Structures are given as structure tokens and as C-alpha cells.
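Hi everyone, sorry if this is the wrong subforum. Our group has a chain we'd like a structural model of before ordering constructs, and none of us has done structure prediction before. Sequence below.
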Amino acid sequence: MGPCARHLLSLVAARALADVVPEPGGWTTVRVPVESVEHAVADLLRLGPEAEVVEPPELRERVVQALRGMAAVYPEALDPVQRPAT
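Answer:
Right subforum, don't worry. Here is the predicted structure as C-alpha cells:
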């Protein structure tokens, strides 16, 4: 999680981070309690590039699927090298 993400977290997640000290570079590895994968996807997507889902694999895949869907709507946002084939 990047240094700008804390203010975007839900109250429950923010409480889980209360005593966490950022690693060098400002990022922090945390475990955040979630109600469900569906809720977690929505919560994590609003963190944008300030969060990376490492595990569980199901949650990471759901975030990846959502991002691919967003990229399909906004293909101009991708670097031509990274743009998915159409």
C-alpha cells in the first residue's frame, strides 16, 4: 500500500493499520479484513495505484479482471506497448 492510500480506506481497514509503520519508500505490507471478495474489489480499486493485492489469489484475479475491463473502456490510457490486442 502506498503512502497516499490510508485516507481512502474504510474505517475497519484504517483501524487495522493504526500501528503499522511504513517500509522504506513509504509502502506498507498489510492484511486488511474484508467482508467479501466483491466488497474488497470495490474498496481496493478506489485506492488506484496506491495498492497492490498480493493475496488471496481469487481477490487478486478479480482486481485484475476489473482493471482489464476498465482498460477496455479507456484504451488511450495505456501505453501502446502495453495496449491489449483487439
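For your construct planning: The chain has a mean pLDDT of 80. The chain is about 35% helix and 0% strand.
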